[in-house]
Amino acid sequence: MAERRAGAKAGLSRELVFDAALDYLDSHGLPALSMRKLGAALGVEAMTLYNYVPNKDALLDGLVDRVMEIAFSGLADPAPGDWVPWMREFAHQLRGALLAHPGVLPLAGTRPVNSPDALRMSERWLAGMRAAGVPLGRAMDIVNVIATFTIGHTLAEAGQTPGHEGSEPNLDDRAGELDPAEFPNLTEILATRAGLDFDHRFTQAIDILLAGYAALDQVA
Amino acid sequence: MAERRAGAKAGLSRELVFDAALDYLDSHGLPALSMRKLGAALGVEAMTLYNYVPNKDALLDGLVDRVMEIAFSGLADPAPGDWVPWMREFAHQLRGALLAHPGVLPLAGTRPVNSPDALRMSERWLAGMRAAGVPLGRAMDIVNVIATFTIGHTLAEAGQTPGHEGSEPNLDDRAGELDPAEFPNLTEILATRAGLDFDHRFTQAIDILLAGYAALDQVA
DNA sequence: TAGCAGAAACTTACACCGTAAGAATGGAGT
DNA sequence: ACTCCATTCTTACGGTGTAAGTTTCTGCTA
To answer: Can you give the pLDDT at residue A113?
Structure first.
C-alpha cells in the first residue's frame, strides 16, 4: 500500500465511494460498515469520504437508490393494454436486484426512496401503466403493492442478512431442537419441504396479485 | 429521583425492561435507543440491564416478539372451511399492531422471528389452516405471503419511522418542488389523492390475495 | 441474632462509532 | 516562481455496546 501524504490525490469520486460501499456491504454486511472501514477499503481516512457524501445516512440512502437503478435500468415500456407481464418483470427484477445485494435490503425496507431518480422511476411506471389503460389511482396502488410485497417477501427470504449472521438461527437450523409433539406441522414442513420454496411462493403470489388487479380493471 | 447505592433494588424484571424499551422506542425511535438511555429511563445504569438481557440485539429481538404477541393474542380459531376471514383478520391485526408500535417496524422487517413463542404461533396458524381444509404447503405459503406483504406494506406506510424523522422528506413534503412538466402523473396524484389511501390499498390487496388462494384451492 | 452467600446494582475501562474543526500538502493557473 | 484551492490527513469530542471487577443490600441458615 503506497503511502500518501495530505493533499496527494487518491483519485476518488462520488461514484467510486458508492461502488466501494456497495461492495463492502455485500461482503461484510450492514453492521460492519463504518466510515473508517470504508475509508480503509479505499485507502483513505474516514473524513476524506465526507468530501463526496454529506453524512453516512446519505451514503446509505444512495445505496438503496443505486440498487433500484440497477434493478430497473433495462426495463422496457409496456405494450399497450399489456401491463401484466410488464409488472411481473418489474417484480422479478426488483427481487433479483435485492437478492444480489442483500446488504441493502434492510435499508430498502426502512428508507423512503424519494430521490430525484426514484421519483423519475415512479413517474415512468405510472406513465407506462396509464398508457396500458390503467386508471391513475389504480396504477399507483398496483405499483406500490407489487413493490412493498416484493421488498417484504425478499426481506424474509434473505433472512438473516450478512453481518447479522449467526445471531438468530433460521428455521432449518432449528430442525433438531423442534419437538415433533409440540410442533407437528412445522416438523412435517421441514421433512417434506412443502411451502419452503421461496421462488415458487413469490412467483405465485405476484401472479395472483396481478390477475386480481387485472380482473378489477376488466369489470370496471 | 431517589439516589440508590449499589445493591439497593430497583425492582426491575425482564418484563419491565421490555416494557420500558417498547415505550422508549415508540416515543423516541430506534436510533435513539441506547442501553444507557434505556437504563436512565428506568433509573438505573446501563450495565444493570445486562442482568435481564444478554445483549442489545436480544433486547430488540424480544421487542419484535412482544409486538407479534400483542397482535395475535386475541385471534380466534378459524371456522372449518372458513379460513379466508380468519386470515384477513390476521393481516389486519398484524398491521394494526405494527402501526401502534412503529419503532419496531424496521426490526420486524429485518429480524427473523424464530423464538419459541413465534414458532408456537406459526404452528397454530398452520394447524388452523389445515383444520379449515388447506393443504400444509399451501397453508405455509399463504401465511408467509400475508405476513411478508403486511410487513412490507406497513413499512412503507409508516414511511420514515420516528427517530429517522426529517432525514428524508416524504412525497407530500415534496409537493412544492415537483415540476409538473417532468412529473405529470405524480403531480396529478398529489392533487387528486388518487392511490394514496393506504387503508384501502392494503385491504384490497389482502382481499385479492386471499381470493386468489381460495380459488386455487377450489379448483384443486 | 450473627454471619454469610448470592443477587443486584454500580464503577471503570476499552475499542469503536459519526463527524466537527483545522492543519498540511500537492497540483494547476498565472 | 508564486498563489490559490481542492484534496487529504490529524486531532478531538461525545456517544456507543459491553467485559471485568467492585460494592452493597437481602434473605437464609446457624
So the answer is: 76
